[in-house]
Every structure is written in C-alpha cells, then in structure tokens.
Amino acid sequence: MDSDLQSEPAGRRKPKGERTRQRILEAAESLFAERGYEGTTIAVVAKEVGIQQPGVFYYFADKHSLYEAVVDEALGSVERTVLASLSGAGAPGARLLRSVEAWVEAVASRPTLARLVLHEAANPNRGSVPAKLRAVGTRVFERFIGTLADHHDAEIDEVDALHFTSAMQGATLFFVAANSQLVGGSPTLPLEPEAMQRHKELMRATAQLLMRRARTS
Question: What local confidence, expressed as pLDDT, does residue 14 receive?
Fold first, then answer.
C-alpha cells in the first residue's frame, strides 16, 4: 500500500499526482537554494524525488518552468502573511511593526526561500530573475511604504523608503541564510527559537528607529 495513503486520514488524502508534484517542488526548492539555478538539473531533481526525468517533465515543461513554480509557491505564502499583517486592524505604525515580525517568522520557517532570494539578489542577469519574485518584491515594498506614509500622514522620502525596506528584508535574509558563510558559527544557530526571537526584537527596534527618523517629502 502507498505509504503516503497510510499516513493521511482518508478525508484529507491528496491525489497521487498532486503529492508527486508537491514532492518535486520541495526537492527543487532545496536544490535551487543550495546550488542555484545553473547548478541544478532536472536529472538531480528527479533523483532526489526518486522518479525518472520524464516524471518531472510531466508536471513542468522545463527547468525554467519548474523554477518559476518553486518561486511562486514559496513566495506566495510569505506575501500573504506579510500583507495580511499590513492590512489588519490598528494604527499604521502598529501594523507596520506586526508585518516586520511576520516577515521574520515567515523567512525563519522557510530558510530555503532566503537562500533562493539571495541567489537572485546576486544574479547579474536581471532578465533571468523570475517575474514572480520581482512582482512580489514590488507589491510588498509598496505596501510597506504606503503604511509608513500613513503613519506619518505624508509621502516618505524615497531614500528613507529604500533604507527601511532593505534593512527589514536584507537583515533577515542574511541572518537566516548567509551569516555563517561569512562570519562563521553554526549554520543552524539563527533558526534556534531564542536566536530568532532576539533577531525579531532587533528588527522591531530597528523599524521603530527608522519610522521615527523617516523624512517626508
């Protein structure tokens, strides 16, 4: 009997094809995060999943399609979480701080996404960056800055807007995905609950400082 079917209650079983597609996405996300786009092949993804290459091509036309799907699936959950925090109840400043915490929690729960984003941030070929990544980045940036402008009841200076979003996003991506690569230490330390809570507190304090110092146009 299929082990997947044994482990899931009957009312919650997913079709076999959907489970296979999800396994491909999960394996590809991990491999793309570790090796980058150029260093990952369909053959390696298939081997990781335990299927033949045609099994991957059944769901995804080519490597680029698979990569776009990985980015789309990974970013979608993070975007929904952050935007929900920005759109919730309360004053703009409170919503902004909640969204910063939501961002930290979302990235910490999916470190492979952090590595994927950093790979693309260092990609000199802008034309190869997935459209989904740019679209999500733009939407989150605009909502961040719109909420900050609401907090000040005035349009925010462009440079301060960039500083705010880069500090919030960049610091967490680096902390989760790249800190041990450059400064040493355990690669798993940033993901430990105490370390992540301290990072969240630091990001909240940084956000409060930047909110106070933001210039208006």
Answer: 61
Domain 72-213, CATH class in plain words: mainly alpha
Cα angle 118-113-162, degrees, rounded to a multiple of 5: 50
Helices 92-108, 158-177: axis angle to 10 degrees equals 30
Higher pLDDT, 7 or 144: 144
pTM across the whole model: 0.81
Task: Quickly state the pLDDT bin for 5 (edges 50, 70, 90).
Answer: very low
In this predicted model, which residue has the larger pLDDT, 176 or 132? Answer: 176
Minimal CA–CA distance to 188: which of 108, 87, 121, 116? 108
Structural domain spans, the chain = 72-213
CA 115, 81, 84, 208 torsion-angle sign: negative
Q: In the 3-class helix/strand/coil scheme, how is the chain assigned residue by residue?
A: CCHHHHHCCHHHCCCHHHHHHHHHHHHHHHHHHHHCCCCCCHHHHHHHHCCCHHHHHCCCCCHHHHHHHHHHHHHHHHHHHHHHHHHCCCCHHHHHHHHHHHHHHHHHCCHHHHHHHHHHHCCCCHHHCCHHHHHHHHHHHHHHHHHHHHHHCCCECHHHHHHHHHHHHHHHHHHHHCHHHHHCCCCCHHHCHHHHHHHHHHHHHHHHHHHHHCCEC
Q: Please report where in the chains the tokens 């680029």 appear, as a residue.
A: 64
